[in-house]
Design goal:
This protein is an alpha+beta fold and 757 residues long. The protein has 25 helices and 20 strands. It has a five-stranded mixed beta sheet with strand order 2-1-3-15-16. Strand 8 and strand 9 form a beta hairpin. The radius of gyration is 35 Å and the shape is globular.
Length: 757
């Protein structure tokens, strides 16, 4: 027991001997020596690494831009837009922000503090970089498993990033990003030594992108509140400061709810950081600022109103700049103050023809009707403000007349009803503080004209009546409407002839037929049913049952797949919408697709491009509104000359469809568009309830699509209103082709067999 436990004298003695033996001493000595060698090695590597790191860090700093030559004042040049013949058609200029700057004294302290509170709370304390913010961001990122979502850039860094490191989007990896970040932080520290906080903040506020094509706080104040920045209230300051994080998603006009959430965060931060009192906070939160924005959301200064074509063009250029890697601030700055040259595809002669035809009131029914948009702000006797919207106006009169729909036979009728409304709501002692009345002529219209061989959109009109401002509703590109029977060609007959083994001679019976859900398919004509008919005849007379039966045979999925290939981006594969806890599922992969029954509708531009693909021998080219964009120094930054094209259907299929649609124009539902002396192919399109009427057609030269309908989906009246689309198409295309040699559609050299059946 004593030997085993080593607790006796012998055990203790043996233990002492083992600790003081020679072999043990040598082993200890060797171990200590080895440890010293390893430690020395580690220290050596550390010193070498540290020296290398310091050298690398010094190299990064030495390669930083020279602070003395940096110009951080906002500056810019107007952008010029040219037509296809090189004529300058418009100038794009950022409203005021790059032309009339505000001094710090003219910018309210509330606006200055709002930016500081939401973007850089220690701005007045740090030396250009916020160490606490960096540590906080790192801690939050580590806590979130490596997802570093917290920003740590100061206002000084943001100013440098947007005005100096403008090529940061071209960084290829972590090393580039880290190099730029180090330089950015270094310059922020150096800049703080030479520039006052007020000057840094002023340059930042005069150059920041604040949505709606506005760069700088003065432009934003005019755009959203129709007044100079020095007149902004605390509530309005918080709206503007709330935009900076994401100018598109936080736009107070298009996304008021998102901006309101951010605005509350701005005010919360200002209260927490001591910039405002609780009373000022409560007053600002109670302000119904977004109703006021909707009323006065147009520019205070007179400016050139861009055409529908230019509106669509700027949208395309903006999207392409974002796709090329620019952020929103950089893209807006380039587009509106970057001195760009944009070479558009617009043909000035064809555009002039479209403008002339679409502005000629003789081409519309004599009894033009009017669609009202109305907003009213009442200043109550007690000083409160009460805002009334178009929807409130409609709801009030709908209680008296369930069919009331904001459509008036005359403008006088509209104003009479407006006065009745004010009489009901403006009480004794109240006054009308602000009022907005917009009366839009109805029915409305649109046209897109494209050279099918190049994909160049040569002309566009997005509405009828005086265009009141830039970026107004463009019915050629923005409005999604039901395509009606125009879809029979692209969703049904194109896939049927191209890959399903059917021919124009295939016979189907025009007889009673139901959808899968048991609902009967109705023809547009009232003569009952026409019995066995060929697909060609089904196209010529736009026979609904023949079209639905054909799609049923080839499958709605095949029709849907062809539509996607034809360039339609708005059709729906599957969409879930939850309302009041109840979820509905929508899909366009169904039999009603044959008649243009889709969830969201299509745009004129995309429908026209699909027909242009047929006119182009089955080759789809994504429609283009510009060829190239050149920067201020002459460098091409966007090259749009390469055709984004693909073969959608065989050239033989395209010719067969064209041949059948020639019959539509010569003997079918589209006969009234035929202006003679030129081969024409096309297809009418009318929804079953007459909310939308189309004509899509082409010659060997150009493809054009016209649409007519009411902005609020009111049913088109019988007679002239339902013929406007065809009338406008004929008037435009006849004039375009006046001096062009007569041409016919060329049959492909092989693959077509003609036979009598």
């Amino acid at each position: 027991m004593e030997d085993n436990m080593n607790y006796g004298k012998k055990g203790v003695r043996r233990r002492q001997q083992s600790l003081t033996s020679r072999s043990t001493k040598i082993a200890k000595m060797l171990g200590i020596t080895a440890f010293k060698i390893i430690l020395l090695g580690i220290l050596t590597v550390g010193v070498v690494g540290l020296c290398a790191g310091v050298g690398l860090f010094k190299g990064v700093l030495d390669s930083s831009p020279e602070l003395s030559v940096l110009d951080l004042d906002p500056s810019g040049f107007s952008t010029a837009v040219y037509d296809s013949e090189g004529n300058q058609i418009t100038t794009l200029v950022a409203a005021d922000s790059n032309r009339k700057y505000q001094t710090i004294e003219k910018i309210p302290l509330d606006l200055q503090h709002a930016f500081v509170a939401i973007e850089d709370e220690r701005f007045y304390e740090h030396n250009g970089i916020d160490i606490k913010g960096i540590v906080r961001a790192a801690f939050v990122g580590l806590r979130n498993g490596g997802r570093f979502t917290e920003g740590a850039s100061t206002i000084t860094q943001q100013l440098l990033k947007n005005n100096v490191f403008t090529d940061w989007t071209s960084e290829t990896g972590f090393a580039d990003s880290m190099k730029r970040k180090i330089q950015e932080q270094y310059l922020a520290i150096e800049l703080t030594k030479t520039m006052s906080k007020d000057d840094v903040l002023l340059n930042y506020m005069n150059s920041i992108n604040l949505g709606q094509n506005t760069l700088g706080v003065q432009a934003a104040s005019l755009r959203y509140f129709n007044k100079s920045v020095n007149s902004l209230t605390l509530s309005e300051c918080a709206v503007i400061a709330g935009i900076t994080q994401n100018p598109s998603r936080l736009n107070p006009i298009s996304h008021p709810d998102a901006n309101a959430e951010r605005r509350k965060k701005v005010l919360d931060n200002m209260l927490e950081q001591g910039y405002i009192t609780q009373g000022e906070y409560d007053e600002a939160m109670a302000d119904d600022v977004y109703s006021r924005i909707q009323i006065v959301n147009e520019d205070a200064e007179e400016s050139l109103v861009n055409t529908y074509f230019v509106d669509a063009l700027t949208d395309d250029v903006m999207n392409d700049l974002l796709a090329a890697g620019y952020n929103e601030t950089q893209a807006f700055t380039l587009l509106y103050s970057g001195g760009l040259k944009i070479y558009s595809t617009q043909d000035p002669h064809i555009q002039a023809i479209c403008d002339e035809v679409f502005s000629n009131e003789e081409n519309y029914p004599a009894d033009t009707r009017w669609y009202l948009n109305y907003a009213l702000t009442i200043k109550k006797a007690n000083g409160d403000f009460e805002n009334h919207s178009t929807e409130m106006f409609r709801a009030y009169f709908k209680e008296q007349n369930p069919s009331f729909n904001l459509i008036f036979d005359t403008q006088e009728d509209a104003y009479t009803q407006i006065e009745e409304y004010k009489l009901a709501f403006v009480g004794s002692g109240d006054e009308v503080f602000d009022e907005s009345v917009t009366l839009t002529p109805q029915p409305q219209v649109s046209i897109t004209v494209e050279d099918q061989h190049t994909g160049y959109v040569v002309a566009m009109v997005g509405g009828r009546g005086a265009k009141e401002g830039s970026k107004t509703l463009n019915r050629a590109t923005d409005t999604k409407r039901q395509p009606g029977s125009t879809f029979k060609i692209v969703a049904v007959y194109a896939p049927a002839l191209d890959s399903a083994g059917l021919t124009l001679a295939t016979m189907l019976n025009d007889a009673p037929f139901n959808y899968a859900n048991g609902r009967p398919v109705n023809n547009w004509y009232s003569t009952g049913y026409r019995g066995p008919n060929s697909l060609r005849k089904g196209i010529i007379d736009s026979m609904n049952i023949i079209a639905v039966k054909t799609l049923t045979i080839i499958s709605p999925q095949l029709g849907f797949d062809y539509l996607k290939n034809f360039g339609f981006t708005t059709i729906v594969d599957r969409k879930e919408i939850t309302t009041n806890g109840e979820t509905q599922i929508f899909s366009d992969i169904q039999q009603s697709l044959a008649l243009g029954g889709v969830t969201d509708g299509v745009t004129n531009e995309e429908l026209n491009a699909a027909y242009a693909a047929i006119a182009n021998g089955g080759t789809y080219i994504k429609p283009k509104l510009y060829t190239k964009v050149v920067d201020h120094d002459g460098n091409v930054i966007l090259d749009n000359t390469q055709a984004d094209s693909r073969q959608v259907i065989k050239d033989t299929t395209a010719w067969l469809l064209t041949d059948a649609m020639v019959d539509v124009v010569t003997q079918g539902t589209g006969a009234s568009v035929n202006f003679g002396n030129m081969a024409i192919a096309g297809k009418t399109g009318t929804t079953s309830d007459y909310n939308d009427v189309w004509f899509a057609g082409y010659t060997p030269y150009y493809t054009a699509t016209t649409w007519t309908g009411y902005d609020n989906n009111t049913k088109l009246r019988k007679g002239e209103e339902r013929n406007v689309a065809k009338k406008l198409w004929r008037a435009v295309m006849a004039k375009i082709h006046e001096d062009l040699p007569s041409e016919s559609f060329q049959m492909p050299s092989g693959g077509i067999i003609q036979a009598t059946v």
